[in-house]
Structure formats: structure tokens, C-alpha cells
Amino acid sequence: MNGGVNMPKYNIVAATGCATGIAHTYMAQEALEQAAAEKGLTIKVETHGQTGVENQLTAADIAAADAVVVAADIDVDADRFAGKKLVLVPVARGIHEPSKLIERALSSDTPIYKATQATKKESKANNLQQANGSAVTKIYTSLMNGVSHMLPLVVAGGVLIAVSFFWGIYSADPKSSQYNQFAYMLNTIGSTTMNLMVPVFCAYIAEAISKRSGLIVGFATGMIAFNNGTGFLGAIVGGYLAGYTIIFLQKILKPLPDKEFRGLKAIFLYPVLGVFISGLIMWFISTPMKTINVGMMDFLKGMQNSDPLILGIIVGCMAASDFGGPINKAAYLTGTALLAQGNYYFMAGVSAACIAPPLATGFAVLMNPKAYSKDERSAGYVNFLLGSTHITEGAIPFAAKNPLLNIPAFMVGASIAAVLSYMSKIQVPAPHGGFIVLPLVNHPFLWVIYIVIGAAVSAVLLAIIAGRQAKKHGGVVAGGGMGIITGEVEENRSESTLQSAKEDQNQEFDNDLSEILKPENIFFNVSVKNQQEALRYLAEKAVKSGLSSSTESVFQKYVKREEEGSTGMENGIAIPHAQDAAIKSSSMMILKLKNPVSWNTFDGKPVDLIISFLIPVQDNGAHLRYLSSTAKLLMHQDFVAKLRSSKHSDEIVELFKKFSV
């Protein structure tokens, strides 16, 4: 509050970004927003995608926030967060463990981020830990920053070159009988664009390290690397060389006062001295760098012919290990580098290994639909489209659900697709596009068949794993793997959970749950053998208590809801609910079980405390608010502890009344 004007204040501010700026960026944003909403916190997430920076954080947003989370593989200008508690991690962790990141950011043990060495209040241990973490993260994020800016050029140039081959493989050669002037023009434009790969890659690595001055020196160093034939290895070395050359110059020229020499430094000293020093070093190391680059490429070319099985397994495992992450990108960059040299075989295996995993998820949900939640089935169907266009990231939620089993399953299928492509000498002259570029592939139908075979093998393994997991949790579908509390709450998150989190924090819950909870609907020491019996018990008690007119109708709605996604929470608690015409009014029941039963929960623990909602067909969305409030209540350990220790019905009703207002 300032001058009578309400200013937005966020508990957490965050920034996300991935190398491609397509899927990971927004998946991390969604995961962080959900995690914050579940904790009753407000958050603003800035995204760094291919279309630019969206939802940009202002200085006021940052100043008012309690802590910062940066989940990014690229440079997002972390220096602006100096003076705040900051957690800086790769984008994958933002997707897989958003709740932990938020908790860590808010922890009193998290050190204050320092852009300079001006502040020295932290202990030496904290400073050392932060310095080591920052150094490793800086190297990684600067590399991914280069990849992010280079990839669109590679795709644009590669596809144009590939399209020129429609008129013949030698259509761009004026001496050939296949020569076509338009094909020559396309090939020239595409080749020129592809040639920018090395200088742009180099420049944006340097830019992430030392901002604009590094960018300028990086372009120059990258051109030297390109002209001397060092390839993308030269771009990587040159990028770090240019970036840290500027850092070196900034330190030695620091005695010159900024007020008088800022312009001279930026326009003259940094670019001239930087290009001279970095360019000179790159000039002398170009010969050994070129030898290493040529040797590596020749080795990979040789493996295509002599050991396609081993090469395919390596490429398949790399592509399916992190689904668009740095290991996947290493294989992809090697393929694009070979494309620039006229080798179209290597990319065939890389593309096949990238396309197979998302397709596998689609086949898996078709093979065993009962083993997946409604949201997972929808995601699997969408992955048919994503996979067909070479977007691997759609497989991430499925891998994250059970990584120790699902990732190897993806690797098997991706490796099969890559091995078959190499053994049949498939050629793919475009670096991206998936099945869109099939007209450019030398054996298109064979290539598609190989990819489908690999995807099908992974799908069988995934379906078996998911089926066993479902049986393990009481024979009801194992939903909730996507981090969803309840289907209805997730579908209406903007109307319930998220909106609740943005309201006044002093009034945490705006729904008095005691209004729909009566003492006679709370049952202690209930004996049931499994989840099905627990749901049946609830349905029977609903009829006996006059809350419903049909046991079977309510029971079937309970079961159907579990099939859409498990209502298991954590700490042994589940919140099943049923909406049916047989239910007279919104009601709430609580069961305390004598012995815990198997249930699919966030933490894998069995359930011994059940909070159930009965919902009439027409309730104007009231049940969504009740579910949202309950989900937030269960985040409070003191509430959960008192609920578990309560021995009387009236005590529990009063507990809900106290915490709900």
C-alpha cells in the first residue's frame, strides 16, 4: 500500500527459459505457478521464449518479492535480483520439483544473491558454495544461451537447403545437368544462413557472460573460428574466450572512472582490445581445433558405416535422456554440424530418436488407457502432433512420473529407431520439422516405419509399467502423476485455487467447511480392506445419513473420479468426491481408518484419513471452492496434526470452523 494505491505484491518472482524457448520454458512456468498456488502463495513468472520475454518482471515486482526462483538454461539477467534470496537452477528442475524450489527460496538458509563482491555478510562457506554454484551455472547457461539463438538459424537455413534438393541433389551446381536457378537461389540463401551458425553461437555464449561488449567480440571471434574451419567446437571455445576476455578487460580498466570513460570503454577500448586479444588467441588455436573437429566428425562418419548399432544406441540414449535438454542438444548439434558438411545420414538417426519418445506416449495411452488419468491421456494424444513435428519435450511429464523406469523405456525405443535409420542409410537433409520434411527424405516411408517401431516398443514398456503401478495402488488408475490435486480443481484453477492464492493472505480461506460438515458424518476406527471398500463405505453411509438416495450411483461416481486422476494427497490423506443427481446438497464426510489402505498419493504412502465431498449436480461451482480450501488446509502441518489427534466429532467440526475463516 502506497499513497492509498494498491500495488501488486508477489511472494515469489521467477524467470524461466530453455535453449529452444518452446516447451520447457512454459512447462516450468506452469509448474511453478501450480506449486505456488497449492501453497497459498502469489507468484509472477517471467518467460524467455522464442517470441521474446513475456510477463516481464518490473523493478517494483522484484523489490517487493520475498524471494526469487530462476529455472533457466539461458541467461535471464540474474544480476537484477541482487540483494534477494535467489535459487538458480536448470529449467528441468523447475518442471520436476517446483515445490522444493519455492521452499528453498523462502528458507532462511538461502543466501542473498550478490552481483558483485560488495556485500560480505555471508559466511565464507556460503560464499564459496554460491561462487562454485554460480560458476558452474554460468558456464551452463551461457552455452544454452548460444544454442537458443543459434537453433532458429540452423532450422531456417537447413530447411531451405533441403527444399532446394527437390530439383535434384546437384540442382544448385551450375555445372550440373540438374541445375535450376531457383534451387540455386534457395541453396545459397540457406547456406548463407547456416554459415551464421558458428559466429552466432559464439557471440551469444559471450553475450551471456559479459553482455553487449561480449556479443560484439563474440561475433568477431566466431567469424575467425568459422573461416578457419574449427566448426561448432571452435564456436564454443571462442564464445567463452570472448566473454571472459571482456571480463578481464573490465577488471584491468576498472581504475578508469566510469563517469568520464564509460563511453570510451564501451565504444572503443572493449571492442578493439577485446577483438584483438580474443581474435589473436583464436587465430593460433584454430589449427589444433580444426584437427580435433575434423577428427571427431570423421570418427562419427566412420561409425555410421562400421558400427551403426553402437552409434544408434548412443544417439538414442542421448536423445531420450533429457528430452530436449543439454544431452539431447549435444546429439542434435553434432547432427547439424555434419549437415553443414553435407552429411545427411547422422541427422536421420538423431531425428528418429527425438521423434520416437513423444509418439510412444500416445501409443501407450491407447494401449492401456485405464492405466492413465484423463489428463495424461489427453497429453498422450497431443504428443502425436508434437512428436510428428520433432518436439521431444512432450514426453517429459511421462518421464517425470516414474523416471527410473520410464526413461530407460524411452531410451530403448529411441535407440531402435536410430539404429534402424543408420543401418538402412536413411538421409534427412533438414535439421528439424519431423514428418513435415518427409518429401526431402530418401526413404520416407521406411524411416516412418522405423520410428513407429521404436515408439511402439517404448509404448509397450510404458503401458506395462503404468499398468503395474495402477494395480499397486488398489486397482484404480494411477493419476496425479502430472502434479494435479484434483481434476476439477485443475480445470478451473484460474477460478479457484490460483484466485484464492492471490487474495488477502490474512484471510486464508473464504469458505467455512464446517457449514457442510456435521458431527454425525464423521466416522472413527473404520475397518476396510482396500480403496474400493472405502469408497463403497462412503456411498453406503451417504444413503444412511440421508445425504443421497442411491448407494450405487454415488459409488460409481467415486470410482469414475479416481479413474480421471487420483484424489490421494500426501501424509496419508485422500479427498475423494462424487457429483451426482442422487445427492441432495453439498455435504462432507470424514473417515478415520483403523488400518491404512493403498492409494495413489504424492508421497507414495497409504491412506488412513479420508475427507470426502458429496456434490449435487447444480452447485454453482461451490464444490470447487471447498476442494480448493481443503487442499490449502492440508498444506498446514498444525491443522493436519490436530485433525489426526482429534478423538471427537464435535472437536473436528470446530477445527474446520476455526481454520476455514
Automatic annotation (TrEMBL):
GO cellular component: plasma membrane
Alphabetical GO biological process terms: phosphoenolpyruvate-dependent sugar phosphotransferase system
TM segment ranges: 150-170, 182-205, 217-247, 267-285, 306-324, 344-367, 404-424, 444-465
InterPro entries documented for this protein: Bacterial_PTS_Sugar_Transport (IPR050864), PTrfase/Anion_transptr (IPR016152), PTS_EIIA_type-2_dom (IPR002178), PTS_EIIB-like_sf (IPR036095), PTS_EIIB_2 (IPR013011), PTS_EIIB_2/3 (IPR003501), PTS_EIIC (IPR003352), PTS_EIIC_2 (IPR013014)
Annotated membrane topology: Multi-pass membrane protein
Domain named PTS EIIC type-2: residues: 139-475
Residues forming coiled coils: none
GO molecular function: carbohydrate:proton symporter activity; protein-N(PI)-phosphohistidine-fructose phosphotransferase system transporter activity; protein-phosphocysteine-sugar phosphotransferase activity
The keyword Signal is annotated on this UniProt entry: no
Keyword terms of this UniProt record: Cell membrane, Membrane, Phosphoprotein, Phosphotransferase system, Sugar transport, Transferase, Transmembrane, Transmembrane helix, Transport
Residue ranges constituting the PTS EIIA type-2 domain according to the UniProt record: 515-659
Leader sequence segment: none
Annotated PTS EIIB type-2 domain residues: 12-107
Gene3D superfamilies: 3.40.50.2300, Mannitol-specific EII, Chain A
Cell location: Cell inner membrane
Pfam families given in the database record: PTS_EIIA_2 (PF00359), PTS_EIIC (PF02378), PTS_IIB (PF02302)
PANTHER family for this protein: FRUCTOSE-LIKE PERMEASE (PTHR30505), PTS SYSTEM 2-O-ALPHA-MANNOSYL-D-GLYCERATE-SPECIFIC EIIABC COMPONENT (PTHR30505:SF28)
Name of the protein described by the UniProt record: Phosphotransferase system fructose-specific component IIB
